[in-house]
Amino acid sequence: MTDTTLVYAYAVLRRTPEAAAAAAQLRGVAGEPVHLVEPATGPLAFAVGHVPPADYDDAPLRAHLDDLDWMESTVRSHHAVVAALVHSGAAALPLRLATVYRDEDTARQALDTRRGYFLSLLDRLTGHVELGVKIYATADITPPEAAPDPDRDPAPGLGVTRAYLAIRRRRHRRNEEAWRTVARAAARLTETAGALAADRVAHTPERGSLAGSAPGTNMGNDAYLVRRDRVDAFRTGVLAAARATPGLRVEVSGPWAPYSFALQPEPAP
Question: Which residue has the higher pLDDT, 165 or 225?
């Protein structure tokens, strides 16, 4: 490769012939071949590709953040490389999107500098995958903050209006009670899922356009770290608990590479 390219890192791997063979079958975000960069010593390697500075240097990369089509294509390609490495059986630690180094020597130095940190994460994640669990309240139950204010009415004082407001208040109270009930049920379901997993990361529930067309209100949007040989048991247990819980709907997705657990801040030295 020439000096005019940058080095895009996809994942940290244990350096093995199998990992090198898996990487050699892949193409990356710029259609480039993927290969391993290995320090002179040590058990780790980066899976990398060489990418053009015109897209991946600091300034153009910042500009691309506003290009949704470019970002979507890059995310998909990045994920495809990581997913293929994980599917091959390699112990892989996914890296953040657009982890870019000036050259391979700089990448090797970064790998050496953070060797202990990367090894500890790889030890923790090897043999595990990520599953997503989204918990929804059914569409007939509305969060209290989204429900209409029962006291807002432009013409108070009339008998009919008072009766109408009283009905609205009763409905509002019933909705609040229903919401509290499903919130407690969602918390119990989260405990059930947590007991079936090695770890959990709570993501922000989806609202507005992020929630898509799924009916109901997203109450939980969590990631679980699950042993690879326990994926079916996790899925079965969570869905069975959901079926026994009126007012809730649950979606289980994955298995995925464990992004939510790999992309943690490095501990202070």
Answer: 225
DSSP tag of 144: G
Q: How many CB atoms lie within 10 A of CB 20?
A: 16
Cis, bond preceding 94 (omega within 30 deg of 0): no
C-alpha–C-alpha distance, residues 65 and 71, integer Å: 7
200-235 per-position pLDDT tens digit: 999 999 876 555 566 778 889 999 999 999 999 999
For residue 158, count CB atoms less than 10 angstroms from its CB and return exposed for 0-12, middle for 13-18, buried for 19 or more: exposed
pTM of the model: 0.76
Sign of CA dihedral 80, 81, 83, 88: positive
Q: Which residues contact 185 (CB under 8 A, 6 or more apart)?
A: 245, 246, 247, 248
Structure tokens that stand for 244 in this block:
């026994």
